[in-house]
Amino acid sequence: MYQEKRAFELLEKLAFVRTAGTRQEAQEAQILAAELESFGVEAQIVPFEIQDAKEPRASLKVVAPYEKTYAVTGYKCGKSTPQGGLRAPLVYAENLHEANLVDAQGKILLVNTRVTAEIYQKIVQSGAAGFISMSGSMLDEPDRTDLDTRKLREPLLRHGDMTGVHIRIADAFEMVARGAREVEVTLENENETRTSQNVVVRMEGSKYPQQVVSFGAHYDSVPFSTGVYDNGAGSVILMELAWWFAKNPPLRTVEICWYGSEEIGLMGSKAYVSQLDEQQLKQRVLMVNVDVAAPVLGHDTAIVTGAESFAHFTDYWMKMGGYPVTVKQDIYSSDCIPFADKGIPAISFCRFGAQGAAFIHGRNDVMAYLSQQGLACTLRHVLPFSDALVRAAVFPVEREMPGEIVEKIDRYLFKQDLKQA
């Protein structure tokens, strides 16, 4: 029914850095299209524009009570500092508790947490002059780990623009331990528009052509990462689905999309869904997403973004087939979201690596931690499950989105902001 060897060999071809809107991302799209054409399936490469920024120039220097310069990356699309930089008192604001923000006006905040929409809104409302976020581990070796570049996306910038830089946690530790109280930050941002692309295949259903099952996986990576676990593996699983439906024509229309620029905010799937009119949206009865797969050590999960009955159906189906898949009803941060936002039920298949045995969003996302057998763990249930749905006498998935799921989607998409203080 599937060939994990063929899929794993394709995954090896996809193993290179391919960030949003780059020549390498376009090259990967061409590889996917050529693979489809090799077994007689015509693919469309559909371009779309993304708003991003060049790699910012940024620096951070402690100027009191000691002097030291630390390695940082700047937040893309953040507010550039005046020429000569921004000098201000430093406040270690921890997790942004209200008590940490009493004296934040005009200061630069060092924060423990990832800068989510809620955190960013608190920073802006505090009147701070800028912020410093941190990541990593105290055990990281700088020459073996990378300091990632982060971005202030449009929903955050609705609250106002802000200067932000990102630092290693070990350096943040030193700053706090040594009592850093004044810093100088520089940030030079240059925003730009680039072109990304989706790879799209459509196979008309022989019996129910107006019912469309949409399959998706993103194929871009983050900087420094070959992105084989996240999400080259999902991309090759989709290729096996394309191969299967090419040889076994579906009863319902099958739409298979490899999305670009997922890693900077689901840009490919958002662009695709935005082009669908009301009738086309109604025709889509389900979105099946595959994101992260193939670790040697791991476990498989199916995340249902839809009705509780769909979660129960999936759980029963997996148990009847003897597949060790944990089923959850929830949202998942991936290309399923733009579909679910339009009321289209979605399911995301993931093989999460055991702790310490698989890595995403960095240089350690490499083939060494993946295997054909790990890939087969997900392939062996995704393909027959998908085929059963596409060939069902009556489509069993209700087009229903529970209120609590809608609330989670709205919050994920920053539709619900914090109440003004």
Q: SSE layout and pairings?
A:
Elements: H1 4-13, H2 23-38, E1 44-53, E2 57-64, E3 68-70, E4 72-74, E5 86-94, E6 108-111, H3 117-125, E7 130-135, H4 154-157, E8 163-168, H5 169-177, E9 182-188, E10 191-203, E11 208-218, H6 228-247, E12 252-259, H7 267-274, H8 278-283, E13 284-290, E14 298-305, H9 308-321, E15 325-329, H10 337-341, E16 346-353, H11 372-390, H12 403-412
Parallel strand pairs: 5-6, 6-7, 7-8, 11-12, 11-13, 13-16, 14-15
Antiparallel strand pairs: 1-10, 2-3, 2-9, 4-8, 5-9, 10-12, 14-16
Briefly characterize the structure.
Helices cover 31% and strands 28% of the residues. By secondary structure, the protein is of the alpha/beta class. An 8-stranded mixed sheet has the order 1-10-12-11-13-16-14-15, sandwiched between helices. An 8-stranded mixed sheet has the order 3-2-9-5-6-7-8-4, with helices on one face.
